[in-house]
Amino acid sequence: MPEGVKNKVYQFLAQNPGKEFTAEEVAKAIGVDRVAVVKAQLTRLKREGKVEETVDHRYKLKQ
């Protein structure tokens, strides 16, 4: 399941380039109840260099 969540998170951010979202907003948008799962996948995408985190803990697609 987490791999599917990771893809959903990435696709959501890719469809909203330049926009920043909290983990909670991403979870709600992709229909995942457990925010912790989304946070873990955002961290993984950040480590892969696909997503960046702002100082106020919002996430966006890395340009």
UniProtKB/TrEMBL annotation:
Which InterPro entries has this protein been placed in? WH-like_DNA-bd_sf, WH_DNA-bd_sf
- Record-linked Gene3D superfamilies: Winged helix-like DNA-binding domain superfamily/Winged helix DNA-binding domain
Q: What is this protein called?
A: TrmB family transcriptional regulator
